[in-house]
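A further point concerns the way the authors explain their paired sequence and structure data. Showing the layout once, in full, would remove most of the difficulty. For illustration, here is how one protein appears when written out as sequence plus structure tokens:
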Amino acid sequence: MSEPNSLKELFQGMVPQSISLCSGEVTSTSPLAVQISNRSKMIATGITLACPKHLTDYTAYMTVNHITGDTGGGSGDASFESHHHSYSGKKSFLVHDGLKVGEEVYLLCFNNGEMYYILDRKV
């Protein structure tokens, strides 16, 4: 067997025959829809398309322990003198990693195109 020349060939060599690797382009984000490459009429969406969390906008919780930079006002009043604040504890952050229209993605194709699972973005 020859060495794979691309990520697609590598994955295709790893999956059973009933599963194939394909690519597509995001055509809509709400609802999420992907046009499957080389199948101009096939657009996967709804129950035929699964998307992992890391390709969506999601909330991540992190523990932080920081001190803000010095800041102060300009009025000359003592309460506006240069100061900083502690910023610590478990905080929530919105991760903006959702797919965008026009992005290309790799997908696993199950049951001859009846179901698709998005693996990741093409880079």
